[in-house]
UniProtKB/TrEMBL annotation:
One of its GO terms (molecular function) is arylformamidase activity. GO terms for biological process: L-tryptophan catabolic process to kynurenine. It comes from the Bacteria. Residues 67-93 are annotated as: Disordered. This is Putative cyclase. PANTHER family: CYCLASE, PTHR34861. It holds the Pfam family Cyclase.
Length: 328
C-alpha cells in the first residue's frame, strides 16, 4: 500500500488559508452565468448522454443503492436516523373490508426519513463557505425555512444520466480490496487506478466518477459501527484541483463523508466539501454500494457504463435519496 506520510502540500495547522486558496483556484462562479443552478452538471450535455447510452452492450444492470430501512447505518448524528417504514393499510385490513366495492382491497404505506439517511446526492445548497453558497450567493437568500429556493435538488432531477466510470481504488491500491480508515486518496492514487484499469477508466469532461474504497464492504462484514460519521478512507483535500481540472459532472463514493476522515487538518471539519460544493458547484454522492459493480468490472475489464442516477425531486431539498443504476 502506498505511503501515507509523505508531503502532500498540507499545513495541518492552517485549514483557513488552504480552503481559501483552493476555493480561489477552483472556483466556477460565473462560469455559466449569474443565474446558474446546475454547477458541474453543465458539463453533462446531450452528447455525453449519447456517449453513455452507447456503452450498454450486455444489458447487465446494477443498483448502486444501499437499503432504505431501519437496519441502516445512521446513529443520530445531526438528527439523522434510519428510515421508518409504516403500513397504513395492510392485507389484514383488506380481508376485513376497507369500504371499497366488489371486493377491491389494497395496501398503502408511508416512510419517514432524513433525506440523507442512505444512498444520496448532496445538492448545491448543502454546504456553504463563510455564509456563501454556490455562485457567490448569500446562504440566507438560498436556503430558508422553506428549503433551498434557488438550487433545490429538483433542479438536477433531469440531468444526472451519462457516462459513468468506476475507479476501484480499494482494489488497485488497497489490501484485499479495501483501504483502511484514515487513508487519504490522492491524485496519484486516482491516476494509478486509472492506469491499472486501462483505457475504459479514463476520466474526462462530463463524466460521473465513482470511487470505491471498500469501506462499505467492511461495514457489512463487521457491522455498521461508525460507518456513518466515523473514521473512513476518502478523497484527500489535495484532490480539489483534480476534481476541477477534469471537469467531471459528479463524483460518488461508498463512504459516508466522501473525503478522508479524520480530515487532514487539525480542528477542521469536511474542508473538501467546503471547496467543491459552494465553489466548484460539484455534485457529491455518498453511501453508494459499488461492490457488485466493481466485481463485474474486474471480471470483464470494462470500467465505463451508462449511469442513470436522478435524485428524488423533493422541492427545495439540499440533498435527496437516489437509486443509481449502472448499465453495461
Amino acid at each position: 500500500m502506498p505511503e501515507q506520510t509523505g508531503d502532500r502540500g498540507i499545513d495541518r495547522t492552517d485549514p483557513e488559508d488552504a480552503i481559501a486558496a483552493a476555493a480561489k483556484r477552483c472556483s466556477n462562479w460565473g462560469r455559466w452565468g449569474a443565474d446558474d443552478v446546475l454547477g458541474t452538471l453543465n458539463f453533462l450535455d446531450e452528447a455525453k448522454r449519447r456517449e453513455g447510452a452507447a456503452l450498454v452492450r450486455r444489458g447487465a444492470s446494477f443498483s448502486l443503492a444501499q437499503s432504505f430501512d431501519a437496519d441502516g447505518p445512521q446513529k443520530g448524528w445531526r438528527r439523522r436516523t434510519n428510515p421508518v417504514h409504516t403500513m397504513t393499510d395492510t392485507g389484514l385490513d383488506a380481508e376485513r373490508g376497507q369500504g371499497f366495492p366488489h371486493g377491491f382491497g389494497g395496501a398503502d404505506d408511508v416512510v419517514f426519513m432524513p433525506l440523507q439517511a442512505s444512498t444520496q446526492w448532496d445538492g448545491l445548497g448543502h454546504i456553504f463557505d463563510h455564509g456563501t453558497a454556490y455562485n457567490g450567493r448569500r446562504a440566507g437568500d438560498v436556503v430558508t425555512s422553506e428549503g433551498d429556493r434557488v438550487t433545490g435538488i429538483e433542479t438536477a432531477s433531469a440531468h444526472i444520466a451519462g457516462r459513468g466510470v468506476l475507479l476501484d481504488v480499494g482494489r488497485v491500491v488497497g489490501t484485499d480490496g479495501e483501504l483502511p480508515d484514515g487513508f487519504a486518496i490522492t491524485v496519484e492514487h486516482l491516476e494509478a487506478t486509472i492506469a491499472a484499469q486501462g483505457a475504459s477508466a479514463h476520466v474526462g469532461r462530463g463524466d460521473l466518477v465513482l470511487v470505491r474504497t471498500g469501506r462499505l464492504a467492511r461495514a457489512r462484514r463487521e457491522g455498521w459501527r461508525d460507518y456513518a460519521g466515523g473514521d473512513s478512507p476518502g478523497l484527500s483535500f489535495t484532490t480539489a484541483g483534480w476534481l476541477h481540472r477534469t471537469e467531471i459532472a459528479g463524483v460518488a463514493t461508498d463512504t459516508w463523508g466522501f473525503e478522508v476522515r479524520p480530515n487532514e487538518f487539525d480542528g477542521a471539519f469536511q474542508p473538501l466539501h467546503q471547496v467543491v460544493i459552494p465553489h466548484l458547484g460539484l455534485f457529491i454522492g455518498e453511501m453508494w454500494d459499488l461492490d457488485a459493480l466493481a466485481a463485474d468490472c474486474a471480471a470483464d475489464g470494462v470500467y465505463e457504463f451508462l449511469l442513470v442516477a436522478a435524485p428524488l425531486p423533493v422541492t427545495g431539498a439540499v440533498g435527496a435519496p437516489v437509486n443509481p443504476i449502472a448499465l453495461k
